[in-house]
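Box 4.2: Ligand-aware structure prediction
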Amino acid sequence: MALLPILCFPDPRLHKVAQPVQAVDARIKTLIADMFETMYHAHGIGLAATQIDVHERLIVIDISEERDQPLVLINPEITWASAEMKVNDEGCLSVPGIYDGVERHEAVHVRALDGEGQMRVIEADGLLAVCIQHEMDHLLGKVFVEYLSPLKRNRIKTKMLKAQREERR
Ligand code: K1U
Ligand code: ZN
């Protein structure tokens, strides 16, 4: 397994639109294992392939406290979303240290292939629903800060660029 570098906002590669996974083959299975290792190492609850500069529709998630309930979503599609919306605080491994409120559907149903290429339907609410919507946005090239005001977004961009400059020193 391998730890993969995570792209940081405002890297333009975070805005690429991911393409469908063509086959759940050995390459994708290795990528899934590497993404879980990377996500657990970073203490995240989700990771989209976009964040590791792979532009294919693949997401890994584990919202469990014990970190023992891995979930793989390949080519996910939302088939139903609740009319009820809720604002939740979100974070992002690509925008380290920033948390802010984003309005999302309270519940969603998602159809996706699992890590073995089997079709699954997931009925999600609470943190899982939030995480799925956040990760599916990544596959469309959207980062959660894009829901914030231009003022907040620009402040975050400036802060991230400064931190990245200091890291390179
Ligand atoms: O996409 C990512 O960068 C992962 C992101 C997922 C996410 C967290 C919270 C709300 C929506 C989506 C993270 O894992 S950020 C890590 C984090 O700080 C966190 C961990 C557990 C609960 C909440 C935040
Ligand atoms: Zn994110």
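In the box above, the bound molecule is K1U. Residues 44-48, 90-94, 130-131, 134-135, 138 surround K1U (ligand 1) (CB under 6 Å).
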